[in-house]
Design a protein that fits this description.
Among the domains are: 1-39 and 771-894, Isoleucyl-tRNA Synthetase, Domain 1 (Orthogonal Bundle); 164-295 and 516-598, no CATH class; 299-511, Alpha-Beta Complex (Isoleucyl-tRNA Synthetase, domain 2); 895-956, Roll (Ubiquitin-like (UB roll)). The protein contains 31 helices and 32 strands. The termini are far apart.
Length: 957
């Protein structure tokens, strides 16, 4: 054969779908999309208003959870959710929706600040560099974002509005009667005109500025308070409850966390506890996330009861079992409880048991020593069920309000200020923790719920407490009240009514949810728009002074301490910049220029992500949070979405009681104040799984570089030494990260997109296997060959009509892929596309144009670059992005015939090809007349024929 008849390798390669061709196609089409504004979603009004015909379509607002721009860049686990939302967004565009899909960056917070401390690089410099790197990586994946709407939380024109929202919350209070937030000015007006009585009966006009501020501080939705907080010396900052792990350590850094009393900013999220619970019912969220929020909010019904103590004071407890009040034989206060210092006498009362004193000479010494001991423990350590109960007698006694009995008052670390009132009535016979404490401190126990087992009525003989909601009340009769013989429910109602009449208690609802600690002792966060006068009175900055920008500082680090130094106190980086802290301002209140001191804490990193969905809608608005018409269009309530919100929100399940709860709270406040029409920020939530990878560890347990591991005979070696393999997370610290850039270089972005979507159901974690990526690469190569001649580059489709078999395969795929796309079942959609493509390939003939075009349209949401290229080569000038998604013809979706199995005595005796529409009667007649069935029956009497048309006939003889 002549050499001239063989194409040169370079020429043949030029028309094959290779990694090099994929890279060229992908880069070229990304430039075209940017130049054309292909993914720009028009608003109904404003500077982003566009084609009215597009705005008239059904809208679809699709969001990913905010990414944090890490210096390490992306690994292949990060884009899983981004690719999924991109595929869904593309499908929604092709099914006639106006789709808003974009991505910003959550860029304040601890990682950037720690990097700045380590390297001396300003956190803005490193963060902006990380953002730019991440943008390049994300663009390479072909994500169809409206880039006009992107921003970072560190942009001053963004955090101007974060500060503005803080001021809206600060200048609001929750009106329980109206069940909504109202401006604080309306509360002040009611104090001024006397329609609302001031606590203590004082006159508003007679109060000083400081006294007025103190009164309003008790109502504001954002307020400063001296309260027990989670202090983390190792990080040098305080943390919200949600940022402390179940073992009492910081979520970031894994440092010990202690209780300390400090003045901090808080958000009164507890005012919204009922609404946060109730509105979950209308949200399309995973039940597991709803359950986590319900448990975290922790609504419980019970009663508040006052136990008189000391000189006119009372210890208030919340109990879900007021029916057991006659069984309360002692009380326990949290060591931090404010009444402790007031009720401690100078000397031990006569008859005090030695086991109660902790060996101290006086009650004061005992309490002080125990308080120090408790402060060094985390909440989790304090509540551990397995440990020995510790505590100390305060020297004081309280009066049981139903029996008049004097009961000793202890402090113990198993009672926390963070739940209820920080005090409990102890009923040791019917509570396991109280039982253990009573045993340890030789305290009396009284049975007030009849045991249902055979134990003695004397709790002193029991091995553990008896707890039941089904028991009968006993030993519970006092002056004017008799509970004996009642069930628990009846007894609870009776004792609650009795207490209410006497003013010593009332039925109430309690929540586990605590107010949101909103201060951080960091530099890299939003400054509070608050200043203090010489008397320490707080004032909000006027809107004209926003944004209050972060000053330049030389030292970004807060003062940190030894991780176990529970006595340390915070020192913020901003407090060291006296030129910024101490200022003279005219706040526009008619009092002229005055000296003020700025707040030196910053907001937590959650602040910026509490409202970012709104900024996507109207990103260039400098005069309002968001245009009302634009917000109503994209997020307003509508059929099936009574609370409004984003149509699809995709992210990890780890934010169930952090970001998701906080964002819901902010959304409700903004709704109450009339700034938005949506009560909820996110209507539908989908939690994607995690991409995992093998972690290889040496004999010390340290990770080794995964790419340098050798496998021999099922065992693994690193530098010749045996190592262990386990499945875990993917990440730089575990030395097993695979970057999307690596896969794009070897196979192309479309292959990476297909592989990540094909690995398994989106909500399930799955292991990464680089060797398996080639399977999706081959799918794209076969797709390419079905349309393009690899030797000449010519399009090979023909203009003839497809046969019936081809049409059936095509329309079944269209029907299945469309349903899978809508339901986020991308792995099964890819399987159906693969099956169709293989069927067409095996036919061994050129594809009909109508078949090829619909095949390309099916692939377009998943592999947009190659689909765009093939669509253009098929002769279309318009982008594939805005083409209609194929619609299945029902006539070809239904099978022309199905196989019906005929069984006799449970064994298959015949298979019949029948119409899918055949009736039960027709199928029975056909089966009984079949020759094989007649022979198998052999004249036996038929007792029953069970027909499940069109697939089963079961004959019973």
């Amino acid at each position: 054969m002549s050499e001239t008849n063989t194409p040169a390798p370079e020429a043949a390669e030029a028309h094959r779908y290779t990694a090099a061709m994929a890279a060229d196609i992908e880069a070229r089409w990304q430039d075209v999309w940017d130049a054309r504004g292909t993914y720009e979603a028009p608003n109904p009004t404003g500077d982003l208003a566009g084609d009215p015909s597009v705005v008239a379509r059904p809208k679809k607002f699709i969001m990913d959870m905010f990414p944090y721009p890490s210096g390490a860049g992306l690994h292949v686990g990060h884009p899983l959710g981004y690719i999924a939302t991109d595929v869904f967004a593309r499908h929604q565009r092709m099914t006639g929706h106006n789709v808003l899909h974009t991505l910003g960056f959550d860029a304040f917070g601890l990682p950037a600040e720690q990097y700045a401390v380590q390297t001396g690089t300003h956190p803005r410099v490193s963060t902006e560099a990380n953002i730019e790197n991440m943008k390049v990586q994300l663009r390479r994946l072909g994500l169809g974002h409206d880039r006009r709407r992107s921003f970072a939380t560190i942009d001053s024109d963004y955090y101007k509005w974060t500060q503005w929202i803080f001021l809206q919350i600060y200048n609001s209070w929750y009106d329980v009667d109206a069940a909504k937030a109202r401006p604080i000015a309306e509360l002040v007006a009611s104090f001024e005109d006397g329609t609302r009585e001031l606590p203590g009966g004082a006159s508003w006009a007679a109060l000083s500025a400081g006294e007025r501020a103190d009164v309003l501080n008790e109502y504001r939705l954002a307020y400063a308070s001296d309260a027990p907080v989670n202090w983390c010396p190792g990080l040098g900052t305080v943390l919200a409850n949600e940022e402390v792990t179940s073992d009492g350590r910081s979520e970031r850094g894994n440092f010990p966390v202690f209780k300390a009393k400090l003045s901090q900013w808080n958000m009164r999220i507890t005012a919204y506890a009922d609404r946060l619970l109730d509105d979950l019912d209308a949200l399309d969220w995973p039940e597991a996330i709803k359950l986590q929020q319900r448990n975290w909010i922790g609504r419980s019904e019970g009663a508040r009861v006052d136990f008189a103590v000391g000189d006119g004071d009372a210890i208030t407890v919340f109990t879900t079992r007021p029916d057991t009040l006659f069984g309360a034989t002692y009380m326990v206060l949290a060591p931090e409880h404010e009444l402790v210092a007031k009720i401690v006498p100078a000397e031990w009362p006569e008859g005090t048991r030695q086991v109660w004193t902790g060996g101290a000479a006086t009650p004061g010494e005992a309490v002080d020593a125990y308080r120090k001991q408790a402060a060094s423990k985390s909440d989790v350590e304090r509540q551990a069920e397995a440990k020995d109960k510790t505590g100390v007698f305060t020297g004081a006694f309280a009066v049981n309000p139903v029996s008049g009995e004097q009961v000793p008052v202890f402090i113990a670390d198993y009672v926390l200020m963070g739940y209820g009132t920080g005090a409990i009535m102890a009923v040791p016979a019917h509570d396991t923790r109280d039982f253990a404490f009573a045993q340890a401190f030789e305290l009396p126990m009284r049975c007030v719920v009849q045991p249902s087992d055979d134990r003695d009525e004397d709790p002193g003989e029991w091995d553990d407490a008896f707890s039941s909601y089904d028991g009968t009340i006993v030993n519970s009769t006092g002056e004017g009240i008799a509970l004996d013989g009642l069930g628990v429910v009846e007894a609870k109602a009776a004792i609650t009514d009795w207490m209410a009449v006497r003013g010593i208690g009332e039925g109430t609802v309690n929540f586990r949810l605590r107010d949101w600690l909103f201060s951080r002792q960091r530099y890299w966060g939003e400054p509070f728009p608050i200043v203090y006068d010489e008397d320490g009175v707080a004032y909000p900055l006027p809107e004209s002074m926003l944004p209050l920008e972060l000053p330049e500082v030389e030292d970004y680090s807060p003062r940190t301490f030894e991780a176990d130094d529970a006595t340390s106190k915070p020192e913020t980086p901003l407090s060291r910049n006296q030129a910024w802290v101490n200022v003279e301002l005219d706040l526009g209140d008619g009092r002229g220029v005055r000296p003020f001191r700025r707040e030196t804490n910053t907001m937590p990193n959650w602040a910026g992500s509490c409202w970012y969905e709104l900024r996507y809608l109207d990103p260039n608005n400098g005069s309002a949070l968001v245009d009302p018409e634009i917000e109503q269009y994209w997020m307003g309530p509508r059929e099936g979405q009574p609370h409004g919100g984003v149509d699809l929100y995709v992210g990890g399940a780890e934010h169930a009681v952090l970001h998701l709860l906080y964002a819901r709270f902010w959304s409700k406040v903004l709704f109450d104040l009339g700034h938005v029409s949506s009560v909820e920020p996110f209507h539908k939530l989908f939690n994607q799984g995690m991409i995992q990878a093998y972690v290889y560890r040496d004999e010390r347990g340290f990770p080794v570089t995964a790419t340098e591991v050798e496998e021999r005979d099922g065992k693994f070696f690193f530098e010749g030494e045996p190592i262990k393999r386990e499945m875990g997370k993917m990440g730089k610290s575990l030395k097993n990260a695979v970057t999307p850039d690596e896969i794009c270089e070897e196979y192309g972005a479309d292959t990476l997109r297909l592989y990540e979507m094909a690995m398994g159901p989106l909500d399930v974690s799955r292991p990464w296997d680089t060797r398996a990526v080639v399977g999706q690469y081959r799918l794209l190569q076969r797709l390419w060959r079905n349309v393009v001649d690899e030797e000449t580059g010519a399009v090979t489709v023909v203009d003839s009509e497809p046969g019936e078999d081809t049409l059936r395969a095509l329309h079944k795929a269209i029907d299945g892929v469309g349903a899978d796309m809508t339901a986020l079942r991308f792995n099964t959609a890819i399987a159906k596309i693969t099956e169709l493509n293989n069927t067409l390939t095996k036919a061994g003939r050129p594809l009909e144009r109508s078949v090829a075009e619909r095949l390309v349209l099916l692939v377009a949401p998943l592999a947009p670059h190659v689909a765009e290229e093939l669509w253009q080569r098929l002769g279309h000038a318009e982008s594939v992005v805005h083409q209609d998604f194929p619609v299945a013809d029902p006539a070809y979706v239904v099978d022309e015939s199905v196989t019906c199995v005929v069984q006799i005595k449970g064994k298959v005796k015949a298979r019949l090809e029948v119409s899918p529409a055949i009736s039960d009667a027709e199928l029975e007649q056909l089966a009984l007349g079949d020759e094989a069935v007649v022979a198998a029956l052999g004249g036996a009497e038929i007792r029953k024929v069970i027909v499940r048309a069109p697939k089963l006939v079961n004959i019973v003889v």
